[in-house]
């Protein structure tokens, strides 16, 4: 009888032990390095492995198998239960973790893509600036009429200067901010969402944004308003352009994963890359909202050029420090 129980226990363990080992590996990783050390596949597998192990424990108890197996499974299930259900994080703590760790670490992880994204934007801006300076007709190729709003090469220096300090009465500023937020959000969202197509649409959108920026600056510098338009742009552009560059970086990250999946399938590779990219993109929306407020209100209410530059440079310094200040390796995803 004892021999039959031993054989039955051995067979039971051999058939299910691989699941228990997989669960134990995941639990040890969480207990040692935190849940952020897990891969996406491990996170998805954790509930399934827990349910399978719990079922094994139920069978072991019902059939009076080896007591050591039952004790082992009880310990394993208790550890898994605590991780899955015993330490629920409040909404406010999750939000705090996002701002304190997840968002800036996502930006740090994608720093190479961010540099490339900024390079494409800058290259397009310089190219458009040179082309429009030498031939103003290029302006109408690069600049959508809805964004130009009367700021064209044919406008006088006085009318262009007026637009830098007045965009209608104060009651219209909210609508102006809402429109610009909507436009720039679309550019950023498409730059991110279309990244899966081997980064090509993302690069096109980044260059499109650079063309708009460069041609816009060109018509003002042609009227000796370069310093003034710089202040007009930087008060919100330090946040807005940076946000679009980060969105492009997130799109490139996914596109690179699709183009070079390594040993994974393209779908699996894109799914893994999507975790970090999505964290960064969630923060981009917040940046664009803040930029919309600066663009619609701050830029129109702060009309001193030096004050505008001050706000812009301080804002840029804050973003750079927030994203790229050194963080302990224990916080890494």
Structure, described:
By secondary structure, the protein is mainly alpha-helical. The longest helix is centred in the last third of the chain and has 36 residues.
Please outline what is shown here.
The protein has 333 residues and is mainly alpha-helical. The chain is 81% helix and 0% strand. It is built from 13 helices and no strands.
Between the first and last Cα atoms, what is the distance in angstroms?
52 Å
Estimate percent helicity: over 70%
Query: Which strand-content bin applies to the residues?
Result: under 5%
Mean pLDDT: 85
Helix and strand pattern = HHHHHHHHHHHHH
- What's the Cα radius of gyration? 28 Å
The gross shape turns out to be elongated
As residue ranges, the low-confidence spans are 169-173, 329-333
Structural class: mainly alpha
How many individual β-strands?
0
Largest sheet: none
Helical element count? 13
Q: What is the number of independent domains?
A: 2
SSE inventory with pairings:
Blueprint: H1 2-33, H2 40-62, H3 67-86, H4 91-109, H5 111-134, H6 138-142, H7 145-148, H8 157-165, H9 173-193, H10 200-221, H11 226-259, H12 266-301, H13 305-324
